[in-house]
Amino acid sequence: EAGVAQSPRYKIIEKRQSVAFWCNPISGHATLYWYQQILGQGPKLLIQFQNNGVVDDSQLPKDRFSAERLKGVDSTLKIQPAKLEDSAVYLCASSADRGIGGELFFGEGSRLTVL
Amino acid sequence: AQSVTQLGSHVSVSEGALVLLRCNYSSSVPPYLFWYVQYPNQGLQLLLKYTTGATLVKGINGFEAEFKKSETSFHLTKPSAHMSDAAEYFCAVSGLLTGGGNKLTFGTGTQLKVEL
User: Fold this and answer.
1) Is B44 touching A (CB cutoff 8 A)?
2) What residue in A sits closest to B41 (Cα-Cα)?
3) What percent of chain A has pLDDT over 70?
4) Which residues pair with B89 in a beta bridge?
5) Is A61 exposed, middle or buried (0-12, 13-18, 19+ CB in 10 A)?
6) What is the pLDDT of residue B98?
7) Rounded Cα gap, residues B93 and A82, in angstroms
8) Which of A14, A19, A69, B69 is found 20 to 30 A from A27 (Cα to Cα)?
9) What are phi and psi of B61, to 5 degrees?
10) Which of the residues B9, B47, B102, B106 would you substitute to probe the A interface, choosing the one with the greatest number of A C-beta atoms within 10 Å?
11) Is A45–B101 a contact, with Cβ atoms under 8 angstroms apart?
């Protein structure tokens, strides 16, 4: 079974530039998450999708971050314009079970460096 | 609101020694608790989880954790450390989002170093 795929693995941009990350979840997983992991901190949930609908985006900085999951499968997270503090690893995860005991399966992450 | 505190951002043990990684949680409802492991340049992988039932939970790679409600703890242990256990370990608590669905709140992580 293929895992969660993310690209690109690494990205370096200058502040005020834009960047996009792509995620393809495990086949059949209806729930998709984007987490931000800043160095030295635990992952923080940015947004959760159930199929192509948003369940929670309360911690997404909507003035610069956007995310979509148009067909309920793969997803794109965009940052525009980027700030220095956006340097982090962006983790995508998927789950077959939206219940609170469900296991999340994580991709390897996309590491963003903003100069 | 739910939160997790991991005591010790770095833990170092000798190969063959006991591993003990500490996690305390705060939750207004019965918690679901998780331990995830992250190897360098990889995503997080589930080690074990507590939902309901038996308070001693066994996971992969010889790890186990015990849910102690009276102490609000969910410490991770392994009797004998192996070099391959060197990684970062995250404790997490699960709660319902306002709109339904599962929200995992992670601790800040503990980096485990295993020395010869």
Assistant:
1) yes
2) A108
3) 97
4) B37, B110
5) middle
6) 56
7) 30
8) A19
9) 60, 25
10) B102
11) no
Give the gap in angstroms from C-alpha B96 to the nearest C-alpha of chain A: 6
**Cβ atoms of B58 and B35 closer than 8 Å:** no
Strands B19-26 and B73-78: antiparallel
- Please write the tens of the pLDDT for every residue from B8-41: 999 999 999 999 999 999 987 778 999 999 998 8
Tell me if A56 and B101 make a contact (CB, 8 A cut-off): yes
CA B98 to each of CA A35, A54, B34, B47, B101: distance values in angstroms, whole numbers, following the listed order: 18, 12, 21, 27, 8
Q: B49 CB near a chain A CB, below 8 Å? A: yes
Give the residue carrying structure tokens 């949930």.
A45
Could you read off the pLDDT of A1-20 as tens digits, one per residue?
A: 689 999 999 999 999 999 99
pLDDT in tens, B70-89: 999 999 999 999 999 999 99
